[in-house]
Amino acid sequence: MPSLVTVAITIATLALFLKPVYDRAVTFGAFRSPTAIFHNAGAGDLRFIDGADCEDLHLHESGSIFTACQGTQGTRAKWFPPLTNFDDPTSAGDGELRVIDPKTFTSRKLTLDGFDSFFCTHGIDIIEDPKSSRAIYIHAVNHAPSDEFMQSRNASLPAERKADSRIEIFHHVVGSDKATHVRTVRHGLIQTPNDLLATGPTSFFVTNDHFYREGAMRKIEDFATRALAPWSNTLHVVSNAKESGYDGVDAVHALTGLHNNNGIGRRPGGIVVCDTSGGVAYLAHVEGRSIKLDEQIAYQSTIDNPSWFTDKYPGDNDRSGIVQAGLARAITVHEDVHGGKGIPPIVWLSSGAPGKGWNTSLLFTDDGQSLSSSSAAILISIDPATTDKKQAWLFVSGFGSRRVVATKVDL
Length: 411
Fold this sequence. Notes:
By secondary structure, this protein is mostly beta strands. The chain is about 10% helix and about 45% strand. The protein contains five helices and 26 strands. It is globular and about 60 Å long.
């Protein structure tokens, strides 16, 4: 019969091993049942806005929301390198930039002037044109198939030779119906790009979300944590607007040693970098071309592209903070994408301030039928004079969604 000391050591060892496994299961939603539509304002209308597979959302000071989508919903199952889908490279072709009017809940597609290429969209960012207050630059990740793979259709090619992921830069006059292509940015360090944070008209931070692009090690990387797989990185890239492709591009590592660097966004006084499958948001600041970590916030789900919400009517209850969209059951995402099933989304708000603590609350979740997946969300304050409680409009979309969804939420 084992001694009490042996039993105690065994229990302690199991606890040390099982706690990380349990935490990963929680983050991936293994114990979470898909929930029919929930938004914390109670029963209410959902507004549906045109735009399929819109990975990212960005609110401009004009009030417009900019996003990058696919022209045909469902193509992610055939071609989307971030989910290791390489079956049909011709499905990469019809990406689009859209502008959403949050007052009318409508969207319009921008004509891409001077751009004639495959466009498989992912993360984007917008930044003011320093020469015109009426214009912006739009930076967009493009997971185009490589020329080699298009010509050979050789499924045995390694993933790095199937996809030719790069960054596209466009110029847009706010209110117009077109975006003019400025240049394509390629560099050997841009390998698995996911999201962007523009630092100038043709310069940006870009996250490489994985080290392994497919295979068993890719699966290990997905389910591991920073302690076991700190293999991804974030780059700072500077490019010359007068050149294209690999020409006139300089890239350096801005941040290394993280797991699944994914979404990246601004906050007052700094930025946020997200470990998506780890469910951790890192608050950081920029020093030159480097990113330095300050603190972190852990979530009970995967997260994706962060946005900062500024509460325009704070009163004595300022709810400004980080909006995080993710997957309620990430454990089934590959099955859901390939099976055409709804991908249950989830959205959180972490209110607070760096160094003073964060209060995280659930804003929205669904069983995947009203909204399939969520990878970005933004909040727009509602004037309390028009309602009897503190509320905001939540706009949320996902890499596998049929549309963008808007609904009122309580703050």
